[in-house]
């Protein structure tokens, strides 16, 4: 199947404000992005939850990584709307809209975890050939270092993660 090339990539950090590895990388690349730029590809580092980052807390009102569902993305913006729902709508506007041809090709969402899983890639669909091939490339490039891939696919679950806005969502967890 002939598919269009990946031309727009976003790197997210700070989806959870207390997970600082992605925050530091995104801030570094926002100041000096030369190392992530490639010819023919737009790469945009983006701080997803700046209020939570400023407070160094997971979130302000609710988990940003759980509100990218149609109900929240379509909510009317009123004064008492949770901060992360409003932020999800902004992110969807910038990098989406989710499920559309205009959505970013790839979102790489950087997280930390306290579990002993090392660097782990998160895959949401076993039918995403591009992401599977990309993971294969990453694993080979990192060899002999161990880099597991966690498939979190569920047949009836529609993911509401921050990265799910992209055509190819990728999560990266580091312990």
The number of domains: 1
How is the main sheet built? 6 strands, mixed
Shape: globular
Q: Helix content range of the residues, please?
A: 25-40%
CATH architecture: 3-Layer(aba) Sandwich
Mean pLDDT: 92
User: Class by helix and strand content?
Assistant: alpha/beta
CATH class: Alpha Beta
Return Rg in Å: 16 Å
Number of strands: 6
Which topology does CATH recognise? Aminopeptidase
Q: Can you count the helices?
A: 5
Please provide the ordered H/E string of secondary-structure elements. EHEHHHEEHEE
Describe this structure in words.
The chain is an alpha/beta fold and 175 residues long. The chain has a single domain, classed as Aminopeptidase, CATH 3.40.630. It has helices at residues 20-31, 50-55, 70-73, 83-95, 129-142, and strands spanning 8-13, 42-47, 106-112, 120-123, 149-151, 168-174. Strands 2-1-3-6-4-5 form a 6-stranded mixed beta sheet. α5 links the parallel β4 (120-123) and β5 (149-151). The radius of gyration is 16 Å and the shape is globular. The N and C termini lie far apart (37 Å). The model has no long low-confidence stretch (mean pLDDT 92).
